[in-house]
Amino acid sequence: MKNVIYLKNFVLDVLFPIKCLGCGKEFEGLEAKERWICKQCLEKIVMRKRQVCPFCEKDSDNGKTHHECQKKTFLSGVWVASEYSDDVISEAIHKLKFNFIKDISFPISKVVTKSILQVDEFSDFHDLILSEFSQDSGEEKIYKDDRKNEISETILIPVPLHKKRYNWRGFNQAFLLSEYISDEFHLRVNENLLIRQKNTKPQTKIKSMEKRRENIKGAFSVVENDFLKNKNVIIVDDVCTTSATLNECAKKLKSSGVKDVWGLVVARR
Ligand SMILES: [Zn+2]
Ligand SMILES: [Zn+2]
């Protein structure tokens, strides 16, 4: 069996060599998922510096919804990891979604976790995503275990695809990302609680904010479940344009008793 796998990989390498999306080099001897963006190129990917409020899109510390905007959105905030203008990240997202290369979700998730940990100061968002995470850094623990008890459990929920879209792609890219991110931070992922009942037009094809909100309205529903009560949820997606989709998910989750809902996306378009 091992030989068969070896042979299969060998044939695939010859027919479809994997070249790093950044430098174009081939890295033999590594697992396929580690070859799409090499270590050096992963380091060069731009991290998002400026986070904005999901409602008014003006600057906000760590993407938290402004106090005065809280009544107008169901999101407590949105964390954006990188920049869509970064050629490597935009190509990686494109290859994942439209060339169906599932392995690319691995390096993309690395960009996301790096952006979360590479900050000067932890924020409300970090309280949720790092609620089960502790990492030793020299003498000091980066995240304090004693805060754990004060914080409800955080669950990652990928933005769901409609059945038709799912069948066409064969997977939900947001779910693949959620799995890797949850591994890193020891959180649970659930892809069955929130479903997409309406097959909406892609938001990128719609120009006005109002039409986008209309397009996505009523697209999601929560499968009746007490499980969500008093939990915190981080909704994961690959890209967001406005936060209309994330907000529509948040609306449904909050009506099921979820405490805080944050969005987490790879890049904003
Ligand atoms: Zn490279
Ligand atoms: Zn605001």
What do you see in this structure?
- The protein is of the alpha/beta class and 269 residues long.
- It has 2 domains: 1-44, no CATH class; 47-268, Rossmann fold (3-Layer(aba) Sandwich), CATH 3.40.50.
- The protein is built from 10 helices and 9 strands.
- It has helices at residues 2-15, 32-35, 39-44, 87-98, 105-117, 124-129, 163-169, 173-185, 209-216, 244-255; strands at residues 77-83, 136-137, 140-141, 154-158, 188-189, 194-196, 220-222, 232-240, 261-268.
- The strands form 3 sheets. A 5-stranded parallel beta sheet has the order 1-9-8-4-5.
- α10 (244-255) links the parallel β8 and β9 (261-268).
- α5 (105-117) packs across α8.
- One zinc ion binds at residues 53, 55-56, 58, 66, 69.
- Residues 20, 22-23, 25, 38, 40-41 line the site of one zinc ion.
